[in-house]
Amino acid sequence: QHIVDGKKKKVLVHRKGATRCFGPERSELANIFRKTGQPVIVGGSMETGSYLCVGTAKAEEETFGSTMHGAGRTMSRTAAMKEFQGEKLQKAMEKKGIYVHAVSMSGLAEEAGKAYKDINEVIDTMDNAGISKKVVRFLPVGNVKG
Q1: How far is 28 from 13, CA to CA, in rounded Å?
Q2: Which helix (H) or strand (E) holds 77?
Q3: Can you give the C-alpha Rg of the chain in angstroms?
Q4: What are the CA-CA distances from residue 83 to residues 42, 79, 88, 101 (Å)?
Q5: Which is the catalytic residue, given 2, 14, 69, 101?
Q6: Same structural domain for residues 109 and 129?
Q7: Could you count the other beta carbons within 10 Å of the beta carbon of residue 9?
Q8: pTM of the model as a whole
Q9: What is the per-residue pLDDT across 35-76, written as a single tens digit (0 to 9) for each?
Q10: Structural domain tally of the chain?
């Protein structure tokens, strides 16, 4: 149930490019999360890492309990494959201590970090807006691209 026009209503929320992030005290949450809010893992790119966030009461008021599910792409997969070379990307990542195994180098190229928005900016925007609260940042050490 969500509040629509000041009234509690039973609605179906369809999320495209978003994920559920209920705030604390929601009955739908497991007891362990009722004090903190729903945990949400938000993916960045294989080069930049990801975040663990939690939902907020404001998300329920503003977005029907929704937040981003990832950084979001800045270019299409096709454009990324034209711009980046998988072999070079793999070597550059290994120099940073990030090990990657890919079935194909073109598949690796389409997931290049520069093909995505800056995860830190995306997370900070949602955190500052009060939609989701950042808890911890995960840094990549290995990736498997199938």
Answers
A1: 14
A2: helix 77-83
A3: 18
A4: 25, 6, 11, 20
A5: 69
A6: no
A7: 9
A8: 0.84
A9: 999 999 999 888 988 999 999 999 988 898 899 999 999 999
A10: 2
Please give the helix or strand (H or E) that residue 43 lies within, else none. Answer: strand 39-45
Q: What is the pLDDT of residue 64?
A: 86
What is the per-residue pLDDT across 104-137, written as a single tens digit (0 to 9) for each? Answer: 999 999 999 999 999 999 999 999 999 999 999 9
Q: How many CB atoms lie within 10 A of CB 72?
A: 14
Cα 130 off chain centre by: 16
The three-class DSSP label of residue 49 is strand
Residues 64 and 29 in one domain: yes
- The conformation of residue 116, written as its DSSP 8-state character, comes to B
Q: Which domain holds residue 64?
A: 1-72+116-138
Whether 48 contacts 70, CB under 8 Å: no
- Going by the DSSP 8-state scheme, the letter that residue 128 receives in this structure is H
2 is catalytic: no
Which residue, 9, 11, 63, 71, is CA-closest to 38? 63
Cβ-Cβ contacts under 8 Å for 1 (sequence gap 6 or more): 8, 9, 10, 11
